């Protein structure tokens, strides 16, 4: 954890405001962007190339590849937005990031049959993202 001194735009010219920053949150923002990009790629592949995945049937649990494509595309876009929010120090992005990392990890458990290596790597990154979002002290930002 580091501290930055930010100039305050208030009346006293010599007043300084301390902002606590966290390297974990900067890492979490970057990781959320990467996981989001991976999920967008998953979604686009599932939408445009059904034969790419390893399973023989067209169903994974209860959804077909087109449905999974839309699910991954939406989750990925939200995770990219959350990653940008984390990088700018927004608290809503930290909470939303944990929720969507859990959703993505559970979804990749279901998607494990279709693409095992990619899913295991994404689940591991989701677990790391959850830790990075929950470990920093309260009041720190990722800036």
Protein model, in words:
The strands form two sheets. Strands 1-2 form a two-stranded antiparallel ribbon. Strands 3-4 form a two-stranded antiparallel ribbon. Helix 1 (23-48) runs antiparallel to helix 2 (65-87), helix 2 (65-87) packs antiparallel against helix 3 and helix 3 (91-110) packs antiparallel against helix 4. The protein is mainly α. The chain has four helices and four strands; from the N terminus they run ββαββααα. A hairpin with a 2-residue loop joins strand 3 (59-60) and strand 4. It has helices at residues 23-48, 65-87, 91-110, 116-134; strands spanning 2-7, 16-21, 59-60, 63-64. The longest helix has 26 residues, at 23-48. The model has no long low-confidence stretch (mean pLDDT 80). The chain is elongated, with a radius of gyration of 19 Å.
Key descriptive features of the protein:
mainly alpha; 4 strands; two-stranded antiparallel sheet; 143 residues; elongated
The rounded Rg comes to 19 Å
Q: Alpha-carbon distance between the termini?
A: 11 Å
Molecular shape = elongated
Helix content: 55-70%
What is the compact description of this entry?
The protein is mainly alpha-helical and 143 residues long. The chain has 4 helices and 4 strands; from the N terminus they run ββαββααα.
């Amino acid at each position: 954890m580091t501290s930055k001194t930010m100039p305050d735009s208030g009346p006293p010219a010599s007043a300084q405001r301390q902002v606590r920053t966290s390297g974990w949150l900067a890492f979490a923002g970057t990781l959320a962007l990467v996981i989001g990009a991976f999920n967008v790629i998953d979604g686009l592949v599932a939408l445009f190339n059904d034969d790419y995945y390893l399973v023989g049937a067209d169903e994974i649990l209860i959804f077909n590849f087109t449905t999974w494509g839309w699910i991954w595309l939406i989750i990925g876009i939200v995770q990219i937005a959350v990653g940008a929010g984390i990088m700018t120090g927004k608290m809503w992005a930290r909470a939303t990031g944990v929720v969507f990392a859990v959703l993505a990890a559970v979804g990749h458990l279901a998607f494990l049959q279709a693409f095992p290596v990619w899913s295991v790597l994404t689940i591991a990154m989701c677990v790391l993202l959850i830790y990075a979002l929950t470990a920093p002290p309260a009041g720190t930002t990722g800036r």
